[in-house]
Amino acid sequence: MKDPLRDKQGRRRSDAPPQKSDKPKPGGYTLSERDYRVLQVLHLCGGRLTTPILFRFLKRERLYKNIKSLQKRLKELRQELLLIDWPPEQFLTNRPWENPLVHQITPKAVTLLKERGLWFKNAPSPKGFYKHQLMVSCAYASYWLDALDAGLQFVPQHLLQFQKIIRPGEKGVYIKPDAMMLIYLEDGKPRLVFFEADRDTEAGYSENDEVASWTRKVRRYQWLIDDGTYRKYIEVPEECRAQVHALTVSHLMKDRILKEVARFYPKKCSFIFVHATDAFGYVFRPPKVVPILSAIWERYNVDAFRFITPQQDPVHSEIAPI
Questions:
Q1: So where are the chain's domains?
Q2: How many CB atoms lie within 10 A of CB 291?
Q3: pLDDT at 120 (0 to 100)
Q4: Residue among 19, 24, 59 nearest 41 (CA)
Q5: 3-state class (DSSP) for residue 158
Q6: Residue 73 near residue 80 (C-beta atoms within 8 A)
Q7: Spatial separation of the C-alpha atoms in residues 96 and 110, rounded to whole Å
Q8: What is the pLDDT of residues 261-284, one digit of tens each?
Q9: Strand-by-strand arrangement of the 241-248 sheet
Q10: How far apart, in whole angstroms, are the C-alpha atoms of residue 224 and residue 243?
Q11: Which fold, 29-119?
Q12: Residue 311: which pLDDT band, with cuts at 50, 70 and 90?
């Protein structure tokens, strides 16, 4: 009997309805350990990351060899398992198709991570304004990757033991950096980094403590760092020294921050570092890679500093368990 779905040569007609099969799709839609690792990396870096930065993490662990395979799996995790979402804010910018795609974990993914003991309460928070939080997540992940590429020991925020930092006289207000980390530099001594991201949205000078400004931030970090007060709130090695890293999006804001530093430290200040990047500005362009430790950081009346020397081919040392 002639099959109406096939031509004279027995080939299936192009207008025939798709065939149904009881065979499972290759790989299926069940979660693997690799999938849990994808979700955990997103969580530990603040909940959101671009595809290239996420791929750099997973490639180091030899979980993915090429970015196309990761992109395909991320699509399945979003469409079939509802564990990843695409923040709609990323499409509300100029020429969004030129930007790398941003992924964020969903509440369902957070529940799964908690059930498996892969969720950490001290990890950077995903809460906050989208552009600011994405800037923090990408920069924080870049600190981590730069340190590992240079063979430096890196202690991420979720492994630090700390409590709320409350300055006397400021009831109900506590000092909360955008991110914290411990980095052992080439001299072998640890540095506690308080990271602050500024998309040129905060005031430079303001005597009103209720206004978010760099006057208020420098005053608070002066109280926290000068006498080692941070040691009361954060468990760090005895030889550890603290630093403040301020990442902003314009050289004008960088100069404003340094001007405020000069008001509190007229002679010099060696522990507040400021760097301006073109990414994350008014024309929002999340970069594929954010140079952090290899960038030039400026200080007031002290020589500019690079934490590591830029390398053409970074040394991909074995990544320690996150």
A1: 29-119, 125-322
A2: 16
A3: 95
A4: 59
A5: helix
A6: no
A7: 27
A8: 999 999 999 999 999 988 787 777
A9: 153-155, 179-184, 190-198, 241-248, 269-276, 297-300, 302-305
A10: 11
A11: Arc Repressor Mutant, subunit A (1.10.10)
A12: low
